């Protein structure tokens, strides 16, 4: 049985989702589980500098979108656009690879947990650079650091999917050009943004189907395989094996996993 189910291969899904995940099918949990963590949000805000106008590409339901600046959001998925709430502005229906804005239209641009979804990474980043006068800021995961997280022991197909999808920081640097920095982002123990690594010290959360649905990598796993992964994790928790191996993480205030903040400014 395969770990992975077919994906979109660059075609837009029925609800408009672009890239390799269908958010019409998996987007319902995002508004509840993928709430911006204020500590991570501060890092993004600092990276945006004094930009007054910001473009948010792949904006989803609006996590990490600044409310103290003029923001234009772009989101191709109708499901995700529908989950945006006031005071966030409505999102423009467009894809990263074809942004409907003139050159140098924004002081800064940002994208969070999105670049791994795009059908053409280099085209999308070139478009962000084209429409942005100042910094381009990307919150993403470094695929070379995914093995720091214990989930690979219980759900190896999920980590393999993330490793396949997330672009390397070398590739991001090359595509962005200019002066590029890559900074690790420590994940807090009580992180309110429910991506997989946010549960490094709260493994029981990943027994919830809704929590897993808010992490798109799980949507690529055959349901029977995902059920087996969940049973294995649940058994390890019931027997105390998880705590014997990783219990120290329950009180560790931060985890430095694969989460990174990439910032590029023009030469």
Automatic annotation (TrEMBL):
Keyword vocabulary terms for this entry: Methyltransferase, Transferase
Residue ranges, annotated region (Disordered): 1-20
The Methyltransferase type domain, residue ranges: 55-133
Molecular function, one GO term: methyltransferase activity
Pfam family, one: Methyltransf_11
Biological process, per Gene Ontology: methylation
Record's protein name: Class I SAM-dependent methyltransferase
Organism whose genome encodes this protein: Microbacterium resistens
């Amino acid at each position: 049985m395969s770990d992975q189910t077919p994906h979109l291969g660059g075609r837009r899904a029925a609800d408009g989702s672009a890239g390799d995940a269908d958010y019409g099918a998996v987007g319902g949990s995002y508004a509840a589980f993928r709430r911006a963590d204020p500590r991570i949000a501060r890092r993004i805000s600092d990276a945006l500098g004094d930009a007054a106008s910001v473009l948010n590409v792949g904006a989803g339901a609006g996590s990490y979108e600044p409310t103290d600046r003029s923001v234009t959001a772009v989101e191709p998925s109708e499901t995700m656009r529908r989950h945006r709430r006031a005071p966030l502005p409505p999102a423009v229906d467009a894809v990263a690879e074809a942004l409907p804005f003139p050159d140098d239209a924004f002081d800064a641009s940002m994208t969070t947990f999105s670049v791994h979804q795009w059908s053409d990474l280099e085209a999308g980043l070139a478009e962000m650079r084209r429409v942005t006068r100042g910094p381009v800021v990307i919150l993403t995961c470094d695929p070379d650091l995914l093995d720091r997280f214990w989930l690979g022991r219980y759900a190896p197909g999920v980590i393999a999917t993330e490793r396949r999808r997330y672009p390397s920081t070398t590739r991001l640097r090359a595509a962005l050009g200019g002066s590029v920095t890559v900074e690790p982002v420590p994940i807090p123990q009580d992180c309110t943004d429910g991506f997989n690594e946010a549960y490094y010290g709260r493994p029981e959360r990943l027994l919830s189907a809704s929590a897993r649905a808010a992490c798109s990598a799980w949507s690529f796993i055959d349901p029977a395989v995902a059920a087996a992964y969940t049973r294995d994790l649940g058994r390890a928790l019931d027997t105390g094996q998880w705590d014997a191996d990783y219990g120290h993480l329950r009180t560790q205030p931060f985890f430095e996993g694969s989460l990174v903040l990439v910032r590029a400014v023009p030469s």
